[in-house]
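#struct-help
A.M.: can someone run this one for me? Single chain, 51 residues.
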Amino acid sequence: MEGGPDDPRDFDEWATGFRKTFKNVLLPLLIVVGVIVLISLVGGALTGAIN
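D.P.: on it. Structure tokens below:
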């Protein structure tokens, strides 16, 4: 019995792969972006306070 593109097992494999990709790629990216935004916000606030 061959599984076509609508085979739920294929989707489960894809979903598992997607979750792994999300954890390994998107999560670190989100953290990095969040840190950069925080640093620029804090830096801007500090610069504004100093001047």
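A.M.: thanks! The chain has a mean pLDDT of 86.
D.P.: also worth noting: The CA atoms of residues 19 and 26 lie 10 Å apart.
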